[in-house]
Design brief:
alpha/beta, D-Maltodextrin-Binding Protein, domain 2, eight-stranded mixed sheet
Length: 304
């Protein structure tokens, strides 16, 4: 089945760019143009309007796009069902993840997935949520897993894993033996924060304000530009901090840090699975999505 021309056509339609399609499909720009030209000759009509510097679908192109997505979906279903029949799952999978989930959670998930599906090659791209969304919409990755809120325009967003933000401290800290701490008590201790403008800092400050604590009341002792630097400073007893339980999981298990939750408010966000609304699900992607939904992630504060 020769679905290559249709894939090129759909990618141009979705990116509205021959140059971006060239990068995504790994063809030269003239080769992309030849694929579109071949389709236009087959249907004896123009499929794209390229006037005014923009690339838009003609009415005939809109109609072909609708059928092309259905055809590609059927091709993917055929591959999935045949592979399932003969017990073969193979292919390539490109996953995008925002910083916390990409660095601290997803690698172990991918390792487990590869043990069950050794013929599926995976590529993990880590960046901030904005970058992952852009790559997904451009077709550069198959799916994304991101932290925090995501606008749902052109995306399907599914909450996947809860991520509780916790107070971390040295095992020698006075609070290390306590079970829960009030939000207002954060202003009593030296605090280590991310830099102004970082997503984590903005989220912490928003949480404080929602609980009637002014961010200006904090005794900020250090401002550091990475999660790893903050964990090291907290281990050394230079202050406390607030971060994702998943980001501190390794140090918590090793006894290098202690984590506490808040007694008067839960500080929870979610890692969300994001996909393109108009995308089709290959057998490879379908297998990984099913794996993500049934995987036992455990509890970073004490579970497996």
């Amino acid at each position: 089945m020769d679905d290559h021309k249709l894939k090129v056509f759909c990618t141009v339609a979705e990116t509205k760019s021959f140059s971006k399609t060239s990068e995504i499909i790994h063809l030269t720009q003239p080769a992309v143009s030849l694929q579109i030209q071949a389709l236009e000759e087959l249907y004896e009509t123009k499929l794209f309007d390229r006037s005014g510097g923009a690339v838009t679908l003609t009415p005939a192109g809109e109609l072909l796009y609708k059928y092309a997505k259905d055809i590609l979906g059927l091709y993917a279903s055929a591959r999935r069902d045949i592979n399932a029949m003969i017990g073969l799952v193979k292919g390539n999978l490109s996953i995008g993840a925002s910083t916390t989930v990409g660095n601290y959670l997803l690698p172990s998930v991918i390792v487990s997935f590869r043990k069950n599906h050794p013929r599926i090659w995976t590529n993990l791209v880590v960046g901030n949520t904005k970058i992952i969304v852009e790559k997904l919409l451009a077709g550069e990755i198959d799916l994304g897993i991101v932290e925090g809120d995501v606008a749902k325009h052109n995306l399907v967003v599914e909450k996947l894993i809860p991520d509780e933000m916790v107070i971390i401290m040295s095992p020698d800290h006075d609070w290390a033996g306590r079970k829960n701490i009030s939000v207002s008590e954060l202003s009593k201790e030296p605090m280590i924060m991310r830099e102004k403008g970082s997503g984590t800092r903005q989220m912490v400050e928003k949480f404080l304000e929602e609980n009637q604590v002014s961010p200006d009341s904090l005794k900020v002792s250090l401002v550091l530009g990475s999660t790893e630097a903050i964990k090291t400073a907290v281990e050394d007893g230079l202050g406390i901090s607030v971060m994702s339980g998943w980001a501190a999981r390794k140090e918590l298990r090793a006894g290098l840090l202690v984590a506490n939750t808040f007694k008067d408010a839960r500080f929870v966000r979610y890692f969300s699975l994001i996909q393109r609304k108009k995308g089709f699900t290959s057998h490879t992607l379908g297998e990984f999505l099913e794996f993500l939904r049934i995987y036992q992630y455990g509890d970073p504060l004490g579970g497996s």
